[in-house]
Write a structure and sequence with these properties.
198 residues; two-stranded antiparallel sheet; globular
Length: 198
C-alpha cells in the first residue's frame, strides 16, 4: 500500500480547492491509524495473490452522504488508492508483498521519499483533530497521537539510499492515483445521494 505522504499528495493533487479539503486529507491517512489494519482497510479475500478492498461494502454503509462528509470521503479515497496501488503498482513491478525483507525495504524507502515528495507536492494536515472527527465512527481511538505522527512525517528531513521505490515511481503513482481519485469523486458527485453541499 502507498505511504501516508503519497496518499496526501495524490488526494491534494486531485481535489485541491474542493470544500473541506483539510478534512478529506485527514480522512485520507486515518485508515492507517487503527491497530486492526485488515478491518480498517476493509480487506477482502486475496485474489491473484493480492489483497482486495471491499469498496462496495464501505459505500453500502457510508455512501449515502459520502460527499457531504469530507472526512469519510477521504477515508474512502485512501481505500480506493490502496486498491489501485495493489492492482497496478505491485503487478507492474512484480513486487512480493509477502516477503518481510521487501516490505521493510519499501517502508524505509517511503520514509526516505517523504522530504522530496512534501517539497514537490506540498501536502498538509490540520494541527488538531476537529470535534466532528473525534465523534466519527471512522475515527481511530488514538487519532490525535496518530495525527501528530503523520504531521511529523511531513517535516522530517531524513533521507537515504532508495532500494525499491524511486522518486519517479512515487511521482508516477501520485499522478495516476490523483486521476483515479478525481474520476471517482466526479462519479460520486453525479449521484444525487452522494452530492456535496457547498
Amino acid at each position: 500500500m502507498a505511504s501516508s505522504v503519497m496518499h496526501l499528495c495524490a488526494t491534494k493533487l486531485a481535489l485541491d480547492g474542493r470544500a473541506g479539503l483539510d478534512l478529506i486529507l485527514l480522512g485520507a491517512v486515518m485508515p492507517d491509524g487503527f491497530a486492526d489494519s485488515a478491518a480498517s482497510h476493509w480487506r477482502t479475500e486475496e485474489r491473484d495473490g493480492l489483497r482486495g478492498f471491499d469498496l462496495d461494502g464501505f459505500l453500502a454503509i457510508y455512501g449515502k452522504g459520502l460527499c457531504r462528509d469530507p472526512y469519510a470521503l477521504g477515508y474512502y479515497l485512501h481505500l480506493l488508492q490502496d486498491s489501485h496501488y495493489r492492482r497496478i503498482v505491485h503487478r507492474r513491478n512484480d513486487w512480493n508483498a509477502k516477503d518481510p525483507a521487501f516490505v521493510e525495504a519499501l517502508h524505509r524507502d517511503y520514509w526516505y521519499l517523504n522530504p522530496p515528495l512534501t517539497a514537490r507536492w506540498r501536502p498538509f494536515l490540520p494541527e488538531t483533530l476537529p470535534n466532528e472527527v473525534r465523534a466519527h465512527a471512522l475515527c481511530p481511538p488514538d487519532a490525535q497521537r496518530f495525527l501528530a505522527e503523520k504531521r511529523d512525517e511531513l517535516v522530517d528531513p531524513t533521507t537515504g539510499p532508495l532500494t525499491v521505490l524511486t522518486e519517479d515511481m512515487a511521482d508516477e503513482w501520485i499522478r495516476e492515483a490523483a486521476a483515479v481519485t478525481a474520476a471517482e469523486v466526479s462519479r460520486l458527485d453525479m449521484m444525487p445521494s452522494f452530492t456535496m453541499m457547498y
